[in-house]
Write a structure and sequence with these properties.
The complex is a heterodimer of chains A (421) and B (365). Chain A is α+β, with helices and mostly antiparallel strands. Chain A is 48% helix and 13% strand. Chain A has twelve helices and eight strands. In chain A, helix 1 runs parallel beside helix 3, helix 4 runs antiparallel to helix 7 and helix 7 runs parallel beside helix 9. The relative contact order of chain B is 0.13. The chains are: A alpha+beta (421), B alpha+beta (365). Chains A and B meet through strand 1, helix 8, helix 9 and helix 12 of A and strand 1, helix 6, helix 7 and helix 8 of B. The structure holds flavin-adenine dinucleotide (2 copies).
């Protein structure tokens, strides 16, 4: 081990390929799909499915890496699954973060299966992402009365002992790709929702479990598609579950309610894995905005002079330089968090710090870029105004900036949730 | 490959330096600040850790190869203990490293063994000038070639240990480009102020104004000889050192404020249990990490000879200066009225925090 910052070859290669995808398949259609909310970019979905299958990656969900566990036959290479994923996501989001969210693969749904499922469940539920048709997954945690406070969700799961099925009842909101994962299996393969519910309301967090709900399950309905500030190419669905039945073994992990918070911790472990990835997507948008800003400034004869004392810089130079510092350091924080994940080091602190930072950086850079470019920044002639709208979501989903500050603070202070609310 | 883990040697070094920082520098630092000087024994003990010696190849009397990453790791640890002490221990690097990195062979052979084989001796460097818009790439001190000699004229400020220095590198503009010149002790035309500078912070580090009134040095004293020095690379190494030190000071302030916040009660709970305080701490920790990683990457780019290392070093030190001010200010804030009182060290760190925006040239890795 030593400190190094060279992108591993496979990562650099994928980034190179994805840059073309981002330019040709995403940027060129960004405006159209922003103007036509709820239309589905089928071309992109089809293309990405084929491309990702060709690369051997069926899902954008983080995977355990099978490195070195084949009896020492193969040469041991350091695992880079999360690192590649972060780099891919950053590049796709640089193309268009709304499109990125409809990239076929399991998304947050598959991530939850990866984090909390048994080996059998992983085999069973994740294979579809390598199938004939492109397929999506989604994760349903948020409810109208339970956003940041995930422990107060009211969706219930009751075991019907006669049929050995779980019966789910509840209302979920803000489900990314919920409509595509649940409804669109004419064109798409059958996707699934991972629904968080309580199997024992009296047990609080200990009673929380997640369930795989297959696309098309009776009793489950998409009741609304939200209209949003940005990321309009991505559907955000409200979903109601009324006596929806799922097989017994669709409960991820252990079905018994222990006096622990293992179930809840499963959810949180999902977030440790996915927060730096969401952070990466925010940084992709931010990079797009910063590059655009510098390009426009250069076209107008404004050059950024690096190396000068601050007292000699113009205000624009200072602000651009500050943006670069923010972007670079935030990206390094994402890299460190995923590198730790690849190396099986506990990364709750680093993962949340990267999300805190990316949430700030994504919003600040896009806002600053619009401000500096004045009428150009505010105009819909360019995509910058869209990136300003797209970037804001990074500071909201997967734990708001405040919730991630709480996570960081608890970690550095050694406090429990009860000691610091 | 990406990797964020120091190697075994670096870990050993960090541990040794960390012990010295905690057991020696930190306890002595506060009193040194009040008294305005550092105990020589303290500096000697730090020198014996061999941070600079480990950066100089055997051929020149050292026992290793220079690594900016290792330097940054050590620099952060030292500054975590006490900044004035850290800078004092590292003063000979200001002289030795530019020679190692850009000096002519004869210069390396003449100076490096003398510096690294002996005890700590103040060989220093003069870069900063007393102007609000001081720019290391556009110096007001000039060097002109006349009659086979360089003639140096101008005024330098904040030169560490100038009074006792055996020799110093004076940076001056030669045809508008910053170059370094070795000026021996007591060169005619060189005057060092009697009194040390009085600054907002860093009172324990003796620094002086230096006047150069037509100081003549032979051609051989130009660093790198006739072909000269890639000063921007040297500046990048200074900036990385500055950034690493800023991370160290900020970490010290953060640790102190965190521990205090977990002890201090207000309104029936520890103040750390209030989000207003906890969130400040979370952001401080996050920004420290951000700066540390920028610093590491810039250092790694210096070590691997990447072209954009200079820009990255600039970004790292600019970012670290802001970070250090923010973190140290908040540390004072978190201690409330007690933060303002000199019984606690946070006010010292806050004064130091402001300095990182200006004192590039105080350290080098
Ligand atoms: C486009 C979009 C996509 C989404 N995708 C998904 C998805 O796929 N699956 C899913 O489950 N959810 C998803 N969400 C939901 C998202 O995770 C929540 O919106 C988010 O967690 C915040 O919850 P809330 O909206 O209820 O806000 P609230 O929890 O009501 O928060 C409101 C404000 O209060 C602050 N706050 C709350 N609690 C605290 C506290 N303890 N300390 C300090 N401040 C606090 C918050 O930071 C925020 O600023 C999505 C949301 C959007 C908008
Ligand atoms: C030079 C000087 C002169 C002074 N002069 C006077 C004077 O003339 N008369 C006088 O009566 N006092 C005076 N004081 C005292 C001064 O008013 C207090 O220091 C100040 O009120 C803060 O109290 P504290 O130091 O106990 O900090 P603490 O109350 O311990 O606060 C520590 C930190 O916790 C934060 N904090 C505390 N409670 C909360 C909360 N509920 N939510 C969020 N954050 C919280 C604070 O903002 C602070 O950041 C003086 C202090 C100084 C340093």
């Amino acid at each position: 081990m030593t400190i190094e910052f060279e992108a591993p070859k496979p990562i650099a290669q994928t980034q190179f390929v994805l840059k073309t995808v981002a330019e040709e398949m995403m940027r060129s259609k960004s405006r159209y799909f922003d103007d036509h909310e709820h239309e589905i970019p089928w071309d992109y979905i089809e293309f990405m499915h084929t491309a990702m299958k060709a690369m051997g990656a069926g899902s954008l969900a983080p995977k355990e890496r099978d490195n070195g566990h084949d009896g020492g036959q193969k040469e041991k290479r350091p695992p880079i699954a999360y690192q590649s994923l972060a780099a891919q996501i950053e590049m796709l989001a640089w193309g268009d973060v709304g499109f990125y969210l409809v990239t076929p693969g399991g998304g947050l749904g598959a991530a939850a299966v990866q984090a909390a499922g048994t080996p059998e469940q992983k085999a069973k539920f994740l294979a579809r992402f390598m199938g004939e048709k492109p397929t999506l997954g989604a994760m349903c945690m948020t409810e109208a009365g339970a956003g940041s406070d995930t422990s107060s969700i009211r969706t219930r799961a009751v075991l019907d002992e006669k049929t050995n099925e779980w019966i789910l009842n509840g209302e979920k909101i803000f489900v990314t790709a919920g409509d595509k994962a649940f409804n669109e299996y004419e064109k798409l393969g059958k996707g699934f929702l991972v629904v968080w519910a309580s199997i024992d309301p009296a047990a609080g967090r200990a009673g929380m479990r997640s369930f795989v709900v297959e696309g098309g399950t009776p009793g489950v309905k998409v009741t609304k598609l939200e209209e949003k500030l940005g990321i309009r190419a991505s559907d955000t669905a409200a979903i109601s579950l009324v006596d929806a039945r799922v097989p017994f073994d669709h409960i991820l992990g252990s079905p018994t309610v222990e006096k622990t918070t293992k179930g809840f911790k499963g959810a949180m472990a999902t977030f440790d894995a996915t927060r730096p990835l969401v952070a990466a997507s925010g940084l992709g948008v931010a990079r797009a905005a910063l590059e655009f800003l510098k390009e426009k400034l250069a076209e107008n004869g404004v050059e950024i002079r690096y190396g000068l004392p601050r007292q000699k810089l113009t205000n624009i130079e200072r602000e651009v330089i500050d943006c670069e510092i923010m972007l670079k350091s935030a990206w390094l924080m994402v890299l460190k968090a995923v590198w730790m994940a690849d190396n099986k080091q506990p990364n709750a602190l680093e993962s949340s710090m990267s999300k805190v930072k990316a949430g700030d950086v994504g919003t600040k850079i896009t806002q600053k870029a619009v401000e500096i470019l004045g009428p150009l920044g505010y105009s819909r002639e360019f995509l910058l105004e869209k990136w300003f709208r797209d970037a804001k979501i990074t500071d909201i989903y997967e734990g708001t900036g405040q919730i991630n500050r709480l996570v960081v603070a608890r970690q550095i202070l050694g406090y429990s949730g009860a000691e610091l609310r | 490959m990406y990797s964020f883990e120091p190697n075994e040697e670096q870990k050993m070094l960090i541990e040794a330096v960390g012990k010295y920082a905690a057991n020696d520098l930190r306890p002595a630092g506060r009193e040194a600040e009040e008294g305005g000087s550092l105990p020589p024994k303290l500096i000697d003990k730090g020198w014996e850790l061999g941070v600079l010696q480990a950066s100089i190849p055997e051929a020149y009397g050292g026992f290793g190869d220079r690594s900016a990453v290792t330097g940054a790791l050590a620099g952060e640890e030292l500054a975590f203990g006490n900044l004035a002490g850290a800078l004092a221990v590292g003063v000979p690097s200001l002289f030795a490293l530019p020679i190692l990195l850009g000096g002519a062979e004869e210069q390396k052979q003449e100076y490096l063994p003398k510096i690294v084989e002996g005890n700590w001796t103040p060989y220093t460097a003069a870069l900063i000038e007393f102007a609000f818009d001081f720019d290391p790439l556009a110096l007001k001190t000039t060097a002109t070639l006349a009659g086979g000699e360089y003639v140096l004229s101008g005024e330098k400020a904040y030169v560490p240990f100038a009074k006792e220095a055996q020799a110093m590198i004076v940076y001056a503009a030669l045809d508008g480009v910053t170059q370094g010149f070795i000026v021996p002790k007591a060169a005619p035309g060189l005057t060092v102020a009697d009194e040390a500078e009085k600054m907002l912070g860093l009172n324990a580090l003796p620094t002086y104004r230096v006047k150069l009134d037509g100081v003549k040095v032979p051609k051989a004293n130009r660093i790198g000889g006739d072909s000269g020095l890639d000063f921007e690379r040297i500046l990048a190494s200074m900036r990385v050192a500055n950034a690493a030190a800023a991370v160290g000071v900020a970490r010290a302030a953060f640790d102190y404020a965190r521990d205090y916040a977990k002890e201090r009660e207000a309104f029936g709970v520890k103040i750390a249990q209030k989000q207003a305080v906890a969130f400040m701490l979370a952001e401080m920790r996050t920004e420290i990490e951000a700066s540390r990683l920028l610093t590491w990457e810039a250092a790694w780019k210096l070590d691997t000879g990447k072209d954009d290392a200079n820009v990255d070093a600039y970004l790292a030190s600019t970012g670290a200066a802001d970070m250090a001010m923010m973190v140290t200010d908040r540390a004072v804030q978190i201690l409330g009225g007690h933060g303002y009182i000199r019984e606690h060290p946070v006010e010292m760190w806050m004064r130091e925090g402001r300095g990182f925006a200006m004192w590039t040239g105080f350290a080098m890795v």
